[in-house]
Amino acid sequence: MNHLFFSSSPPATTPVAVPDVQAALAAALQTVRRNIDDWGDSYPGDTTHDGRYARRSAGDGIAAGGNHGWTTSFWPGMQWLSWEISGDEAFRSAAQSHAADFSERVRGGIDLDTHDLGFLYSLGSLTASRMASDPAIRDDARDAALLAADHLMARFLEPAGIIQAWGDLSDPAQAGRTIIDSLMNMPLLTWAAEQTGEPRYSDAVRRHIAQLQAHILRPDDTTFHTFYWDVETGLPLRGATEQGAFHDSCWARGQAWGIYGFAINSRATGDPLLRDAAWRCAGYFLSHLPDDDVPYWDLVYQDGSTEPRDSSAAAIAACGLLELARLEDDPERAGAATAAAHRLVSALIAHCAPKNSTDSDALILRGVYDLPKNVGVNEGTLWGDYFYLEALVRIAHPEWVTYW
């Protein structure tokens, strides 16, 4: 589907009702508050099991409930959002209590062999540096975020001009690989450039994003999950998938990362090609939704399929569409993006949010982590919960200042 899907008048989509958003926010905050009481300063796992989060498994010398893996920051991220929209200091106190964990993690070199330092430290430290009540916490969080940015820069590969996604940089199986999720990790480097005045951070962002725009986004407006470059010559090699149905299919969450990631990096760089890339991703995503607007885990599947849905893809896409609406000068295209985001959020409220807040620890269910590996299928996910709450906040408070 071409991005011209958005060039006409906004579709006749009823905006999500204000009472529905307010009720959904109230239910979400009730769940976040209950989870704070249950989990304390520990971290839940990546996904629920039968609708309930367990404490994060022990690993890498870290006790159960400790800070490792790529998703831990979505938990304080939800707490920061809850504080911003409620003003309840209990949420801010809980959120800033995690800042020391993220500082300790980066200073101790704990589980840092990943590009997901952007996810981790944009929410875990950068946000604390802006909003913690204690100046000492703010200062320490800022320093931790800058250290994380430098660790992320160590993954930048010349001459390919990309940041390697996963693993030890000496691992040949991971050499030269990046993934579409990496778009969301770039804001940490953009912030570091603003904080330090050092252009090396923003130069890395521009080069990395240009490579993804050229190679991970396909001519038919679909996206590869992952792409490889030759680390010696810098030449592009091949696209593939780890979590999609097929190498040439379109993994729904990856397409949603494309919408949001290209949009925020267009805002950061001013590059109109990146905004166009976000529109292209959005057009394809929206034109491949089933009738109830909850995407299948891969967009190759259509109405009538028995394949699982991925609510987290809808939540991410909704945030990306609302970001595009902010960036767009054309009021008709902005209106179309806003209407599409409301359509997705309405579907999440109707079909994925627990009917009662005590039914699950998750804010939304029907998510998928990694179906090919049978991990977190038809469950709640930490990132799905976070981006669902962010989408609700964006709709209820359009002036909200993004964490990305």
Based on the model shown, name its key terms:
404 residues; mainly alpha; Glycosyltransferase; two-stranded antiparallel sheet; 50% helix; 6% strand; disordered N terminus
Could you characterize what this model shows?
The chain has 404 residues and is mostly helical. The chain has one domain (3-396): Glycosyltransferase (Alpha/alpha barrel). The protein has 13 helices and 7 strands. The strands form 3 sheets. Strands 3-4-5 form a 3-stranded antiparallel β-sheet, with no helix packed on it. Strands 1-2 form a two-stranded antiparallel sheet. Helix 1 (18-39) crosses helix 13 (382-396), helix 7 runs antiparallel to helix 8 and helix 11 (311-327) packs parallel to helix 13 (382-396). It is globular. 54% of the residues are buried. Residues 1-12 have low confidence and may be disordered.
Outline:
This protein has a three-stranded antiparallel sheet with strand order 3-4-5, with no helix packed on it. The chain has a two-stranded antiparallel ribbon with strand order 1-2. Helices cover 50% and strands 6% of the residues. It is mainly alpha-helical.
Q: Specify the helix fraction band.
A: 40-55%
Shape: globular
CATH class: Mainly Alpha
What is the count of helical runs? Answer: 13
> How many strands?
7
Any idea what the radius of gyration is? 20 Å
**What would the CATH topology be?**
Glycosyltransferase
pLDDT under 50 segments (min length 5)?
A: 1-12
Reported for the largest beta sheet, the result is:
3 strands, antiparallel
Order of helices and strands: HHHHHHEEEHHEEHHHHEEH
Instruction: Specify the CATH architecture.
Output: Alpha/alpha barrel
How far from one another are the termini? Answer: 27 Å
Query: Going across the major beta sheet, what is the strand order?
Result: 3-4-5
Determine the strand fraction and express it as a percent band. 5-15%
| Average residue-wise pLDDT | 95
Structural class: mainly alpha
The number of domains is: 1
